[in-house]
Amino acid sequence: MDDAAAAKIAEEALLQTHINYQIDRATSIRQAYELMSLRNHDVILSDLRLPDAVGLVAIAKIRSKCDTVPLIILSGSENEQFYVETLAKGADDCICRENLTPTNLLRCINQNIERVRQKRENIELMDAVDRQRQRLEEQASLLQEKNVRLASLCESARSFVNNVSHEFRTPLCVIKQYSGMLSRGTIGEMAGPQKRLLEVIEDRVDGLNSLVDDMLDVSRLESGMLAASRSRCSISEIIRKELIPLKHRGRVRSIDIIAECPNGLPEVFCDSEKVGRILVNLIVNAIKVSPPNELIRVSVSRNDPRQELDIRVSDNGPGIDEEMKGKLGRQFVRGPSSILCSEKSFGLGLSITKELVNLNLGSLKIESQVGIGSSFSFTVPYANPKAILNRYFERLMRHTNQSETKIAVLRASIESANEEQRVDDVERFLSYSLRARDIVIPIQPNVWLLVLNIVADEMPRFRQRFEVSLSEVNRNRPQGDLPAIDLQQMGLFDRVTEVDDIEFCLSKLLLSSGAPGERREGTKQYV
C-alpha cells in the first residue's frame, strides 16, 4: 500500500482489534511479490495508487501471483460502478476509507477469509468428486467387462449342463430298461443275489436321473425359463403316483415308506409334475440319510385358516443342526454326511425343491433334531380363487420391481363346458400363453381369471401374441380347433395401491359365475 496515510489508518484499525495480526507492508507490486514469496498471508489489503501499477491494473498484477488469498481493496469512494469493476477484475471486496474502523475492517477481513475458505473447500470437494467419479467410471467399466465375461461363462456352463444332461438321458434309459427286463425275468429267471444287484443298478440309475432333472431345472431357473402349468389337482393322487417307484427305491435299502392322506382333502392348485418333483427330492433325500430298517412317513394335513395343505416328509436320520439348517436350500450346499450314508450329491436337490415350492405359491419349512431325525414340509394352496390370488400377490411382491409393472386382469371363457377334454385343452393353452410371472385361475369349468404382471403398454402385444399362439395351436391340433375363447379385460391396476380393486374384480367374477368355493377330491361339485 503506497498511500502512507491509508496504510497508517489500516494498521491502527488492525491494532485496535482483539486479534494479534502480523502486518507486512509493501509500497509497490515488486515489493509485494517479494513478501509473498517469503510468507503465506491470510489476507491482502491494497489501494490502487502503487508506483508500478495504478488503478484496476494493480488487481490483475496481484492476482497473477496470488489467486487464492482474499484481496480487499481500500477505496476513496463508495461508487457502485467502481465496486462492480473492482470485483470483476478479481478483488474479493472493497472498503471505503471513510468506513475504515476496527470493527468494519475486522468484519470485512473475517467475511472474506471465510468466503475464500469455503470457496477453496468447494473446489477441493469438486476435485474429490471428479476423482471419485473417474474411479467409479473405471470400476464400472471393469465390472462391465467382468459381467460380459461372466455372462459368457454362465452361458457356456448352461449349454454344457444341458448338453451333458441330455446326453445322459439315452444311456440311463437304456440301462434302466435292460435292468428292469432282467429283474422281471423277461430274458430268463434270475437268482436272488442277481436280482438284488439289478435292484441296486436301478436305484443308482434313478438317482442319476434325479440329478439330471436337478441340473436341467437349475439351468431353466437361471435362464428364467422355469415356469409352472398350474391346475386343480388331487394331492392324494400325486403322492400315490410318485410313491410307486420311490417305495421300490426304499426297499433296495431296507427302508419302508408310508403315506397318510386323510379322506375328503380339498383339491389344490399347483403344477402336479413339479409337486411330484418336490416329493421325489424330499423322499430321496430322506432315503439317503435314513439307516436300514427305518420308516419314512409322508403325511398331509389341512390348514383351513391359511387355505392350504401341508405335506410333510419325516425321517429318522441323523438330523441337522441349526447352523446347517440356515444353509440348506442354497445351491451346492449338502447336508451333513452320515456314517450310514455313503451316497454323494451336488447339493442341488433342496435348492431346486425350494424354487419349485415357491413356483407353486407355497413355502418350505425344515424341522430337525440332531440324533432324532428331520421333517421337511411344504405347502400348496387350496384350489380357491381368493386364496390363489393372495398367494400370487405375496410372491409377486417379493420377486419383482413394484414401481415398473402393472397388473392386468382378464376374463377368459368358452361357451360350453360339456366336453371335459376340450376344457382341459383350453386351460392348458391359457397356461401356455402366459409367462412364468403370470397366472391362470380357474373360476368355473368354462371361465378363467388371467392375471398378468406387465408394463403399462404391453397389453396390445399380449393380445397379438395370444391370437398368434391360438392360431398355431388350432392349425396343428388333430381334433380340430379349440372352442372360441372370449377374452375380456377387466382392468389395469397398480399392484401396490390397487390390490383391493383387483380382489373386487375377482369377487365380481365369482358372483357372476356362481361363486364357487372349495372342491373335494374325486368330485365335480363345489362346496
From TrEMBL:
It is an enzyme of class 2 (transferase). It catalyses: ATP + protein L-histidine = ADP + protein N-phospho-L-histidine. Residues 106-153 form a coiled coil. Residues 1-112 form the Response regulatory domain. Keywords: Coiled coil, Kinase, Phosphoprotein, Transferase. The modification 4-aspartylphosphate is found at D47. SUPFAM superfamilies: ATPase domain of HSP90 chaperone/DNA topoisomerase II/histidine kinase, CheY-like, Homodimeric domain of signal transducing histidine kinase. This is histidine kinase. It comes from Rhodopirellula baltica SWK14.
